[in-house]
Specification:
It comes from Exiguobacterium undae. With 234 residues, this protein is an alpha/beta fold. The protein has a single domain, classed as Vaccinia Virus protein VP39 (Rossmann fold), CATH 3.40.50.150. The protein is built from eight helices and seven strands, in the order H-H-H-E-H-E-H-E-E-H-E-H-H-E-E. Helix 6 (141-151) links the parallel strand 4 and strand 5. The longest helix is centred in the middle third of the chain and has 13 residues, at 90-102.
């Protein structure tokens, strides 16, 4: 009976099992902190800093999806936001909490699958995702959009960074159908601007642009080959 498909959730769970990197993969990914992974640096995304300093978005309460070692969550907390941050890997949550304790910042880091955790409806001014979305398989996009939409207050904003199709650091150009033919996301899906507009067509588009490259000495994180996108809930 365990592998009998009776409901829509059974179908989603079966596809998850075929495609999603297991929690153990992400735990091991963050365990070696000396790896030369670009986003292991403790710097906020350049586009996030622009949203705060130039657009001055309301950021009283923030939800981050796929927070990693916490660099963006901590940046927002330093500026007075009440931040809830979710990541699948316990090792990244532990690292983020260490960083928060060193800086005496109060961020609620939670380990778990964003599709399974309880998230308060209509509680957030801003939802942020830096590098989680391109690891979401196509069959989970509807759920992803539902999570974001339900978490936001009316008029709240949602922003993400994700791979450009065929980008320097990843971004498979495979079709959604090919994901299932090959049973792989090939390390992360790539997107075009048109595809992002189509996927998130229930939101108003405030900005879609390429991330600006940042030098190692800059106080922000920025890599070419990534999209940055800012949307608003209608």
């Amino acid at each position: 009976m365990k592998e009998t498909i009776r409901t829509q959730d059974d179908i989603l769970n079966m596809l998850d099992a075929l495609l999603r990197e297991p929690t153990a993969f992400w735990d091991s990914f963050y365990e070696d902190r000396t790896k030369r992974i670009p986003f292991f640096v403790d710097k906020p995304d350049e586009n996030l800093v622009a949203y705060v300093e130039q657009r001055q978005l309301p950021l009283t309460r923030v939800l981050e999806l796929g927070s990693g070692p916490g660099r963006n969550a901590l940046y927002l907390a330093e500026r007075g936001s009440q931040v809830d941050a979710i990541d699948l890997a316990q090792s990244s949550i532990d690292w983020a909490n260490e960083r928060a304790n060193e800086r005496q910042l109060d961020v609620r880091f939670r380990q778990g699958n964003l599709f399974e955790l309880s998230i308060e409806d209509g509680a957030y001014d801003f939802v942020y995702d830096s590098g989680c979305f391109h690891h979401i398989a196509p069959h989970r996009r509807h759920d992803y959009i539902r999570v974001v939409t339900e978490a936001l207050r009316p008029g709240g904003c949602f922003a993400l960074t994700c791979f450009v199709e065929g980008g320097q650091y990843g971004g498979s150009d495979m079709t959604d159908w090919d994901v299932y033919r090959q049973r792989s996301l090939q390390g992360g899906l790539g997107f075009t601007e048109d595809k992002l507009r189509s996927i998130f067509d229930t939101f108003d588009v405030l900005e879609i642009r390429l991330m600006q490259e940042a030098a190692p000495t800059d106080p922000v994180f920025g890599l070419s080959g990534l999209w940055t996108a800012l949307f608003q809930k209608r």
